[in-house]
């Protein structure tokens, strides 16, 4: 692969002159510029990414870290960011972690990796980063936004849905549908967003007068497998509940699969509700009632905020993006109750 030295040698100029022609700035005679451009064409020379960064001071690239690159949750978010960046004439570099257990270490290593690649700004998604981690990251790259995490003294850079309110909405919806005997498959205890949505869920039930201490709960890891095994454990304890709330849609998909295998009819015998509103939730049998978190819109607004920081643009930034319940076929109203649009 030809280098800038090869271009300079063929054009009969110094490397500095060739560099100024490629960068499009600095004093260069018209004759020298023509010879450099001719050498570039003949050698099919393309400036390296590192060279472009040095010349322009910006890579026109945004780095994105997500905790996992599996399942159906992160892909639409990445696609929303990618689409918005390409529309703006910019690019994306993605790094991702290995497991939820190693998310914090993976995020720190990912931020360093993306910064070393010359990214002009970073979008970090996840719940594991601590305030001291964010201080370290901003010393590496001050143009940084966080998705799904709120850090004191950094809130302007945080784009986080109100998980507590969304969890409360799930509880209220099931209560309004007439369900008084509930069970729960919750997410990992290390996940702060799981903690918030479950707090909102149980607090709302308590406000509505239900005794939450008797509600059976099993813990999952947000995967379909853990939803499957969670539903199995709950049924083994006696199916004395009429509705199952899963702390994300992927666990709800696993739970629906297990219930179908065991001959439990949803929603005739049991109602099931998920959380997140992933695309696949509309295509289950029956289609999954879920709490829709507007993740695409949240991610796009976080990106707009970051682009304004990086490139002095004036893109609109919204933060008031509430969750809502999507009523579908997996939740049935009990006698005397009705679902609401």
Q: What would your notes on this structure say?
A:
The structure is a single chain. This protein is an alpha/beta fold. It folds into 3 domains: 4-56, 434 Repressor (Amino-terminal Domain); 61-160, Rossmann fold, CATH 3.40.50.2300; 163-294, Response regulator (Rossmann fold). The protein contains 12 helices and 11 strands. The strands form 2 sheets. A 6-stranded mixed sheet has the order 7-6-8-9-10-11, with helices on both faces.
Pick out its properties.
341 residues, five-stranded parallel β-sheet, Rossmann fold, six-stranded mixed β-sheet, 11 strands, 44% helix, single chain, 3 domains, 434 Repressor (Amino-terminal Domain), alpha/beta
Please sum up the structure shown:
With 341 residues, this protein is of the alpha/beta class. The protein contains 12 helices and 11 strands.
């Amino acid at each position: 692969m030809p280098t800038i030295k090869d271009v300079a040698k063929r054009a009969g100029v110094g490397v500095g002159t060739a560099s100024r022609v490629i960068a499009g700035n600095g004093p260069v005679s018209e004759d020298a510029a023509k010879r450099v451009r001719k050498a570039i064409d003949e050698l099919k020379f393309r400036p390296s990414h590192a060279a472009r960064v040095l010349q322009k001071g910006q890579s026109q690239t945004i780095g994105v870290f997500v905790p996992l690159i599996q399942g159906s949750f992160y892909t639409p978010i990445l696609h929303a960011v990618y689409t918005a960046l390409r529309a703006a004439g910019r690019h994306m570099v993605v790094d991702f972690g290995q497991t939820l257990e190693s998310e914090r270490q993976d995020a720190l290593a990912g931020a360093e990796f993306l910064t070393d690649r010359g990214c002009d700004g970073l979008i970090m998604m996840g719940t594991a980063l601590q305030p001291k981690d964010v201080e370290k990251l901003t010393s590496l790259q001050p143009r940084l936004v966080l998705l799904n995490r709120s850090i004191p003294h950094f809130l302007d850079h945080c784009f986080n849905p109100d998980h507590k309110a969304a969890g409360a909405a799930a509880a209220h919806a099931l209560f309004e549908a007439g369900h008084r005997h509930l069970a729960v498959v919750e997410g990992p205890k290390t996940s702060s967003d799981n903690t918030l949505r479950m707090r909102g869920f149980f607090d709302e039930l308590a406000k509505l007068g239900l005794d939450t201490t008797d509600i059976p709960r099993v813990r999952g890891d947000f995967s379909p497998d853990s939803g499957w095994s969670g539903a199995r454990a709950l049924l083994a304890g006696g199916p004395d509940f009429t509705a199952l709330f899963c702390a994300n849609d992927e666990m709800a998909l696993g739970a629906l699969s297990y219930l179908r295998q065991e001959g439990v009819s949803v929603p005739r015998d049991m109602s099931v509700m998920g959380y997140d509103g992933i695309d696949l939730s509309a295509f289950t049998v029956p289609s999954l009632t879920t709490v829709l978190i507007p993740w695409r819109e949240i991610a796009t607004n976080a990106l707009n905020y970051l682009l304004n920081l990086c490139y002095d643009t004036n893109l609109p930034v919204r933060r008031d993006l509430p969750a809502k319940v999507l009523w579908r076929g997996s939740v049935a109203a009990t006698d005397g109750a009705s679902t609401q649009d």
